Every structure is written in C-alpha cells, then in structure tokens.
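Note to self: the last two entries modelled the partners one at a time, which told us nothing about the interface. This time every component goes in together.
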Amino acid sequence: MTKREKPIEIITPPNMLRVKVGGRIAPADPEAIARAEKALQQMEVEFEDWINEEVVKLEKAMAAVKKVGLASPEGEAVFVIAHDLRGLGTTYKFPIVTRIATSLARLIEDEERRATAPVALVGAHVNSIRAALAQNVRDDKHPIGKALAEELETQVIALVGEAQ
Amino acid sequence: MAQMIPADKAFDQLNVMVVDDNAAMRGILRALLTAFGCRRIVEAANGLKALELLRETPIDVMICDWKMSPIDGLELVRNIRDPHNSPAPFLPIIMITAYSERSKINIARDSGVTEFLVKPVTSEALFKRLQVIVNRPRPFVRTKMFFGPDRRRRPDDDYEGPERRSDAVSI
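The predicted structure of the combined assembly is written out below.
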C-alpha cells in the first residue's frame, strides 16, 4: 500500500452471511463437489455444439476482418470471441483451443495491438482452432497440435512480448 | 468452535447473482451453484442489468465476468463499491475471468473484487471461494483512493493479534 493512501480506515462489517446460513460452512464437502461434477458431466453432451457455435461466430467475424481490417468493431468481435474461447475451451474438453485462443486474445487484446497485428497471423489462429475441432485434437499431447500452438505463441510473443 | 453447516443447507439460504454475457457460462455456473445447494440464483447478461437488479433484489453474493459490454465487470465492481451510490457497497464479489496475468489480477483487486477465479472454473475452486466468503470474510479498507475488501492476502486468517499497519483505524 502506498503512502498516498494513508490514513487507512479498516471496517469489519458484521458477518451477516454466516448468521444467515447458521454457522460456518464445512471447508470440504465431497458430496457437494461430486454433485457439481456430475452436473457438469451431464452438460458435456452440449459442449461440442456450444464450442462449435463459438467457432462459427469467430470465423464470421474473421471473414469480416479480412474485408475491413482489425481496427474495426469486427476486429474487437474477434477478440471478444477469442477471449470467451480462452475461458471456456478447457471446460468444453478442448484445452488446445484455450491455448490457441489465449495466444490470439493476447495478440489483439486492445485497440493499439489490433492496429498493428498481422491479419494473416490472426487468421492462422482462427484456422488452427477450427482444425482442432475438425480433427478432434483436444490437447497438446497431440504432436501436431502442440507444434502448431507453440509456433503461434512464438510469433505472438515476438510481436507483443511475454504475458505479465 | 462454531457449528459447521453442510453446504447444501448453507447455500440454500443464499441469494446469488451471476453476471456474464455468455449464456453458456451462465448455464455452467447455475448448474454448479444448484449442485452446491443454491436455489435462489439471479442472472444478468451485462453490468447495467446487474446494477438494475441489485437495486430491486437482495443479493448475498455476486459472481461476475470481467469482459462484458456496455459496462464491463471492473466498472460494475467500481459502481458497487461506491459507498455514496451503491445499494450494496459491502457485497462479496467473485470475479471469474479468462485473464490469468498477474497485472490483470492486480487491476481486479484494486477495483474492489473480493475473490478472483481464473477460468476454466472448477467445482472445487468455486466452492472454496464461496466457503471463504461466508466463513472468513475480508475486512474492508477505506483510504482516499480505495474502498473495498482488504487487498492483502492474509496467510493466517485466524490471526487475532494487533493491527500492525501504521495509521490504521479499526471500526
């Protein structure tokens, strides 16, 4: 905490949540976790459709970017979808998509980066994500998937540096 | 030692709001929360809707995404932590985001987020954050530049010794 922030007032509000629930929650509850895992498992049948819908949206936005460039609402749309895929790819059982989408999102994270990012490199990320789905390459245990992800990451790091 | 409450009985009492512009993510969070025992779950697809709902509905815990429009998760949190205009400035907020960089975590922390969770969300990580919010809530800190949960990670939350920060005034 910097000196500019002093003085510091510390407020300890009454713990109304603990009062509301009637006490402390057990720190570990294997039954609750098992129920949650089962709920996620039951949703898995939907995951393939959901990730495919996201990738279709990504491809549409990318097609528009090829016409109007990345410094556009379409460029921002590519980032937003890549960011969503970064967060959800692993949940959808495609960690390789999370990895490639992370690289893509870093490449075009803000307006400044979108102004200079090579459209071809953005397109290569989008094509790689589609290829992973089409070939059912789910993680980087697959040698081609791993090599592709590493190559894309290397090119992005060369342009924008390491993540901090 | 206080009584330990089973998760399903405890979470059944809580009103939880999920704010995410991605419907699939809202669905996943709803499924996890329901499995934990939550019955009262309110959803909002963006920050503005969340603020609107917060003025109408009593909410105990908010789970929000960062990247949303028209106002993003950070702006939502800053609005909630505005003690002059917020209906719930002390609301516990768990931010769930794909951002994992240290710099981003610091920005979220400085906006007033209570807990930070990096996607992919796991049931154990979400359970732990909710459990900590109920069992060991952070004190709040008010300075000229910040109002929100104490940003220091405390290795020993059961520490009951004196406050060591100079100039700290406890209320």
